[in-house]
Amino acid sequence: MSITKALAKLGRPPEQIAVISGIGCSSRIPAYTNCYGFHGVHGRSLAVAAGLKVARPDLTVLAMSGDGDGFSIGGNHFLHACRRNVDMTYIVMDNRVYGMTKGQPSPTTEPDWDSALSPGGTGLSPFHPLVIALASGANFVAREFSGDIKACTETIVQAINHPGFSFVEILSPCVTFRPDEREWKNQVHLASVPETDDPARAARRIMTDDGMNTGILYRGRRKPYFASVSDEEGDISALEAAFEI
User: Fold this and answer.
1) What is the DSSP string of 57-82?
2) Which end of the chain is more exposed for a tag (fewer CB within 10 A), N or C?
3) pTM here?
């Protein structure tokens, strides 16, 4: 709902927007929109989305993932998408569990979360997406809660409008396999300090939060990546000739 409200608020025609996703509960999003959509393969939404944005810079491109899709099999793409800083928006719905495949621990699951599939917990330190995004060069970093539609909508609008790679983590409870996450609505709170354009200050803020701070945490000033290929450079006939057998 927040995504569709944000797109409506932007006022751009559906044919000027593309929503790209991978695999998982979150990745059904393209089916719920009236714009262009591509339901891709597991962990590869960013590769498709970045290629589309570079080829069609006139489009508004959003990539959608869950914590498993985005940070496990898609973790390498996440790092380099932040580093590349293509002008696009990446929204990850994080519920700290593989909800589509019956409740396995995900990269963001707490180390002591006990379940039938991980008795006693994994014992592994959880992946910290906001820290990784900032360290890898994302130009906009934010966290919101799916239960606060108004705040989610506004942050997504700002993420799309901000130049460069924007990353928004959405805390999205999976009450089927994580009924304890019903309490998130009582635990989330607006960050007590304003957003910053200083990476060092943002890093200290993110590293010391409780995982439930919401709002825009970092708004950088890096210039986004744009492919610049002239007509002459686009002529590959000589290269093709060199590989002829």
Assistant:
1) TTSEEEEEEEHHIIIIITHHHHHHHH
2) C
3) 0.91
